[in-house]
Amino acid sequence: MSIALVDVNAGRAAKRAPRVRLSELDVLESEAIHIMREVAAGCTTPALLFSGGKDSAVLLRLAEKAFRPGRFPFPLLHIDTGHNFPEVIEFRDWRAKELGERLIVRSVEDSIASGRAVEKPGQGRNSLQSVTLLDSIAELGLDACIGGARRDEEKARAKERIFSFRDSFGQWDPKNQRPELWDLYNTRVHPGENIRVFPISNWTELDVWQYIARENIALPSIYFAHQREVVRRPGGLLPVSHLVQPRAGEAVETLQLRFRTVGDMTCTCPVESGAATLQEIIDETARTRITERGATRMDDQTSEASMELRKKEGYF
Amino acid sequence: MATDRNQAAESDLLRFIAAGSVDDGKSTLIGRLLYDSKSIFEDQISALENTTRKRGQEGMDLSLLTDGLLAEREQGITIDVAYRYFATPRRKFIIADTPGHEQYTRNMVTGASTADLAIVLIDARKGVRTQSRRHAYLAHLLAVPHLVIAVNKMDAVDYAQPVFERIKADFSGFISELGARNVRYVPISALKGDMVVDRGENLDWYDGPTLLAVLESAEVATEGDNEAFRFPVQLVARPGGGRDQRGYLGRIESGTVAVGDKVTVLPAAISTSVTRIHTHDGDLQLASAPQSITLELEHEIDISRGDMIVHAASEPWGKSAPAITQTLEAHVCWLHEQPLDRRRPYLVKHTTRTVNALFEEIAYTVDVNTLERASDVSVLNMNDIAHVKLKLHRPLVCDSYEQNRPTGSFIVIDPASNATVAAGMIATD
Question: Which residue would you say has higher pLDDT here, B66 or B55?
Fold first, then answer.
């Protein structure tokens, strides 16, 4: 918090109490802490979805702010697509260990192996995560999952509640959302139903980066500029890996780039960038003319309503 | 405290609601604000141009920027509130965009509940209409601190000053009847861009600020300005796990607290004093709304979630004590398709306390179009605004909504369906 005492008496006749002046990030932070504590008070078996990405790294810092010196009142849960960047998995495990909190990993591979999820050729596994997530919610008996989604990301997200109710099929019904007034959150569900909770709903991509810089939050290295082999595909650059090999006639280029989001390696595109420090990323984010998902997610470009359809199937 | 924090984060935040229908040009206005403040990205612009072309039009239809979801387009319905974000070098903005015709009251009440400012759009060609009065009334009912009347489509009336002045004169009678303060009138053309972000060249007779300048300069009265200290306890942390003393976790809803302050725990009315204000970033000497903190108190008292800590009456800012009551008089807006059933108990969630409640009496409903009251009402349907009397199973510690939005508001939950069925604003007695 950047705290400065303001002399509100200046120029006024009536004497007033002193107060603390808060920055916009302080206000967003306090809102998120309040939301996490409402989850702890109102939900029976919550979990925090931690992917190793920047937004969920911010959630972990907010959970520290809400509950330390106590333990988190929920475990961390990662739905692993099996298509993650190794740097992100390494970061995920390191961060959970550093915090001393329990990390539960459930795998999309297992859902495919057991026949619960079927891979669609040429499409990433982001949408298959819904199956594994819903199965994990049932297995662990979760009544709330805290996620790092933001309303500025996408138009389906723009219409979502902070406490977003899901029916017993895990589905989001945009027509039938609970009205959410003031900061009074309705945390009640029947058995089998659950709530997705988004404490950083009101944050923008820039807020997230400014907060990461202010709090000195560690992130996977792939968010910072580095050299990497890529191929050019319609929709964007794709990193070459064991999952993405150049097709006949495709040239492999080595470029300086970074990732704005982390997800399935087969459909998450890096952007060309020299931004190697947090301040450089903040400057680049403030200048960029392309939205976060527009630049980086091939699966969001499939149709105008990709996210909306995934969310209805239970995606977070 | 650390002082080397990023200074760029110092601009503040304004939440506003834009009230009006598509016909008033609301979508175009929001599109214009986003576009002219350079908050629209290239991929959104090209998507916009594509869609405009697909619909057989030229250029770029700004109203499509706020176009709805598949579910809305398929069924020709509108889904309540969408939140949109943009920033200028001066401020960050959150727009609560509330479309909808038939469900307008419900949507606008939801959006207005957190708004610092409401824009009411009036079509210059049509003048003040029923819905203009409805929008202003709802903004006032929800105690939105600033009201901006934007007279839109000035291009369609040749930017004529008398049209603007006539609308202003027509509306100000109603506004003063409401008792609304902080009201401004701005003539604009969202379509052409005049007086929204840029002044344009067509409204030279108007010497007030542009709409964006009004948004940038409206004073955001945080609850920190409200001097009555209100701290609803969210959670209690017990000793152990790195903690030697019981801590009371919560967010300051209004006012300021300092170490050493004498406080009273309500509703039990036990007095003690603050020994420590703890945060993860270190201890504080002073904390204000809306900070989330942990309080430690001098005496071991039985305090649980739902209790409220306030200043003792002996403190300079402790004179305005909240009410402790088992009956509530309040304005409610019914939000659910299933009407009120007065035979059944409902749950009232107020700050961090949830209690059983019965709707004992419906004093009257308000017709939001005429502001006329109807008594002799036995049922509340969706979008109804009513003055009611509630009987509570356990006491609440509250202020009137007019004095204190966070401690004067509540939601009503149906315990059978768990749906949020109503929103309430506690009346001044």
Answer: B55
Which pair of structure tokens corresponds to residue B399?
A: 């202020």
Contact B8 A201 (CB under 8 A): no
Ordered domains of chain B (ranges, CATH): 7-217 (3.40.50.300), 224-311 (2.40.30.10), 323-426 (2.40.30.10)
- B230: β partners: B254, B310
**pLDDT tens digit sequence for B260-300:** 999 999 999 999 999 999 999 999 999 999 999 999 999 98
SS3 B383: coil
Contact call for A5 and B286, based on CB within 8 A: yes
Q: Does the distance separating the beta carbons of B69 and A305 come in below 8 Å?
A: yes
- Tell which residue, B402, B401, B403, has the closest CA to residue B423: B401
Pick from B42, B85, B250: which is nearest to A289 by CB? B42
Mutate: best of A3, A153, A310, partner B, most B CBs <10 A: A3
Query: In Å, how far are A112, B267, B399 from B304, measured between CA atoms?
Result: 46, 11, 20
Q: Which domains does chain A have, with CATH numbers?
A: 21-203 (3.40.50.620), 207-300 (no CATH)
- Write out chain B residues lying below 8 Å of A39, CB-based: none
pTM of the model: 0.89
Going from the C-alpha of B371 to that of each of A104, B138, B374, B409, the distances in angstroms are: 56, 11, 10, 22
